[in-house]
Amino acid sequence: MGAAAQRRGRARGAEDRREPERTCIVSRAKLPPDQLIRFVRAPDGQIVPDVACRLPGRGVWVACRRASIEEAVRRNAFQRAFKASAVVPPDLAQRVDLLLKQRAASALSLANKAGQLVAGFAKVEATVEKGLAVALIHAADAAADGCEKLDRKLRAAGGNGDAAIVTLLSSDELSLAIGRANVVHAALTKGGAATNFLREARRLLRYRADWDVEAARPQAAESKTGQA
């Protein structure tokens, strides 16, 4: 078999392994699962978000945007989708936000345990200057001058134009995830756990941000994950 045929075969295999698209019950758009939130109906009729896509039973899907879930609640979309009565918590959109934030924090904790995270301004600065940082993490309540200094160093270091800047978690939330007090700045280095955290962070950003996940993903969201 020629090289071109082998490449085509690998491409077809990758397509076959992709998860099937699901339909958003609000917009009726077909999207990949990572751009949607799954919901299940509990035996008592409660609508439960299944952000890990692991709960048993039939699920329905809503685009991973806070506005889409709020619209689903307003339009009684869950009742229609399940063809049964449904008890929808009025704060459902906020519950989803909290669950996504918890997943991001848990992924950050795993990155720290895997040795793919450094914290503290001096250590972060050194990691950036060596060109090892794949992402900067600033507390959402961090002072602007410290963030700007590290951001400038990241840009000056070059060689890693895809590095993300994440500002989705507060100092208290970062401290709890990493297991040390007063975390304001951190940096991620290359590895699977770091990649997983960035995936979760971008999912939370997608949920919170005012842009259409049904369109192509903006490049700005790739490089400024949660940057205000």
State the end-to-end CA separation. Answer: 51 Å
Query: What is the average per-residue confidence, as pLDDT, rounded to a whole number?
Result: 87
Order of helices and strands: HEEEEEHHHEHEHEHEHH
Shape verdict? elongated
Structural class: alpha+beta
Q: Which CATH architecture of the largest domain is right?
A: 2-Layer Sandwich
Topology:
Layout lengths: L2 H15 L4 E2 L6 E2 L4 E6 L5 E4 L8 E5 L2 H9 L2 H6 L9 H22 L3 E3 L1 H9 L3 E6 L5 H14 L6 E3 L4 H8 L6 E5 L2 H17 L10 H5 L5
Parallel strand pairs: 7-8
Antiparallel strand pairs: 1-2, 3-4, 3-5, 6-9, 7-9
Helix pairs in contact: 2-4, 4-7, 4-8, 5-6
Notes on the structure:
- With 228 residues, the chain is α+β, with helices and mostly antiparallel strands.
- The chain folds into two domains: 3-90, YlxR-like (Hypothetical Cytosolic Protein, Chain: A), CATH 3.30.1230; 98-223, 2-Layer Sandwich (60s Ribosomal Protein L30, Chain: A), CATH 3.30.1330.30.
- 46% of the residues lie in helices and 16% in strands.
- The chain is built from nine helices and nine strands.
- The strands form three sheets. A four-stranded mixed β-sheet has the order 6-9-7-8, with helices on both faces.
- The radius of gyration is 20 Å and the shape is elongated.
